[in-house]
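REVIEWER CHECKLIST
Item 1: Sequence provided? yes
Item 2: Single chain? yes
Item 3: Sequence as submitted:
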Amino acid sequence: MIVPSIDLQGGAAVQLVGGERLAIDAGDPVPIARRFRLAGEIAVIDLDAAMGKGSNRATIERLVREAPCRVGGGIRDAETALRWLDAGARKVILGTAATPEILSQLPRDRVIAALDARDGEVVVEGWQRRTGRGIHERMRELDGLVGGYLVTFVEREGRLGGTNMDQVKDLVAAAGSARVTIAGGVTTPEDIAQLDRLGADAQVGMALYSGRMDLGDAIAAPLRTDRADGLWPTVVVDEQGRALGLVYSSAESVREAVRTRR
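Item 4: Structure as written out by the authors:
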């Protein structure tokens, strides 16, 4: 499954390379969220808050009204996490605040622990400070306390060069019942399909913003069918989620439906 990402800096949707260099300023994030919500949950990350350089709170409050969002960046205590959940966030993403003491105050199934790693070492504070600890070590500490993990390979972030597939199988096994989402370098629909086969979701930013990946293709990538004609049974719903009927879709029809929103 794809989780489209909106990273916020100064109120704008941006994409950074390697967590440092600005590559794309996509402007107002609201129309982006309206498009991305066709895929389901959107990851909304406050880069300014994560780096201790401000906040995009007002912008995020608009986004959680527009789309189902998992919100992260600068959430350092249980009070802030609960405030976002009360404001409409589906889930919250915690980094350094993902401690047993704080997590015990939050609903497990609505918490994702962010494990940002640069060359295998977990980094914090907007990817600026190394911790000397590995991803698996952090997973062992948080076992049974969170509903999911967001593993970001920072050195691959924004580079469109593929992600660390060779590590994913072990990460999914280490996560147990918690769902793993992989970010950093996911570039093609085939990457999403491969991650899905390994039991992980894909958080995607740069590939969507740069046009390297079509959103419709990304949504269709993990779908499977046993029909001889390769079509997928599809329930059509209106904007309120009411079922309108059953149809059969192909990759081409999904792409066109996402493009036209019809």
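Item 5: Key structural point noted by reviewer: The CA atoms of residues 8 and 205 lie 12 Å apart.
Item 6: Recommendation: ____
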